[in-house]
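Suppose you are handed a protein chain with no further information: no name, no annotation, nothing but its sequence. What can you learn? This example shows the usual starting point.
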Amino acid sequence: MPKESEPVNVADHLARTSKRQPKRLAIISQNEKGFSPKSFAQLEKEVNGCSIVLHEQGIRKGDRVLLMVRPGYGLILLAFALFRLGSPPVVIDPGMGLRNLLACIRRARPKAMIGIPFACLISRVFRGSFREIRLRIVFREKTFLGKIHASASASLKHCANSVPEDLAAILFTSGSTGAPKGVCYEHKTFSAQIDMLKKNFGITEGETDLATLPVFALFNPALGMTTVIPEMDPRRPSRVDPKKLTESIRRHEVNSSFGSPVIWVKVADYCERHDITLPSLKRIFLAGASVPPALVARLKPLLPNAKILMPYGATEALPITVCDSEEAISLRSSTEKGDGSCLGKPLPGVEIYILPICNSPIPFLSEVDPLPKGMVGEITVGGPMVTKLYHRMPGATFDAKVQHNDKTLHRMGDLGYFDEKGNLRFLGRKAELVQTESGPLETERAEPVANKLPKVYRSALIGLGSGQTKKPALVVEPAPEHYPKSPEEKKSFAKEVLRTLHELDRLRPIKRIFFERNFPVDSRHNAKIHRLALARKWSKKTGVK
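A reasonable first move is to predict its three-dimensional structure. Written in structure tokens, the prediction is:
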């Protein structure tokens, strides 16, 4: 059991922050009427009121509650109220598509849902997926806040008596390379992550964060950071208006931001065109996909006072490592020669093992011999930030988790190795490894080599055919202005890409180049490429079996 002074429930972190800095702004959200600020004291008061309202409507400790509300203040308010009640919120990214969304709901079996009117309507139309739900609460922010304020005088007598091992939330993965899975977060997992973010990244109370990813915005109230909710559709970050994002950073003197590379490419383009710098930023986190060293180099002069950090992690385990801009730039040449992206060194308290590549479960670490420095295998991690299981998916849990000395390790599904400097290098997803007649070929061996060409926006290594060994090919998404307009231009472009690839012996098996105007990507970051979907498409198109 923790000491009395240590937070147990995630909501305890908010309560303590509200006592230390009650007048400090907790949330700044933007709508058509302008900016709507909330102090930490106001947020804490409304979280308490929200807990009372939800309890009065029938939500109890242990009830899994599906949240289907728009990102913003409402999501933060409801999540912390449910934390306080001990009722785990179930958070599913709606951008994953209706089919996957409904499958996740069936798997989660929530007892209640809180949703906007349209979401509640969906629950009536697709009754089979929502059959376990016994309570529906329609969320209209203005009306709901009225109920909260009406209950302000009531005493909160039903705050959960949590223990660190209690389930705090179920967060579903994006399902970029497989079926989405519900990751079970305990209260102690959240607390460990909050502690690691503070200690390793210098985050302090009173800073301001631009929240481009709604789920990660849930950390901010617990960290004591002001959350600026930008005017953007988080389901489509690639369509963000960089002008609005840049103006939000400047207007609110934002210190920190977490976002996918695709967002910061757009911000960099805008700032370069308009000769703008963003001096208020102390740090930015680039995550969700491999970060091209060229982007890091572009951002440095635009963010004169900021650390550019590339943390590594997943919904199941974060943060694990971090690479800073200096390390990424110093290894740019190595990355662009196919040596893998630099993920940095393990954070204090994190254990990393490189395990032999296999598709079978590994119940105990003692059953395998971790690989030495320089050898490529599956990245497997341990530490206080590692989650223990997937909700109602024992098979997936068995496949992904490894037991070691009373600890649970997580198999990341990523390939990598430790270089001579002790940096973890990323070579791509295990599921996207292309087995060729010449041997295995990882995505990060080929793609950075092609991506360094000025005309190439991004590329994807795929395997053609359905056999055990496949024919490797590279799909290129050119920069829009460089998309070939004729068969001759396409042929010339392909030759240029092949010539660059074939400078490296390991890439000579790649003989085919295909072009796409827009890659299929994940909904959360709009940066993770659906390579397996591209492989299926081009295998069918070329007739390779």
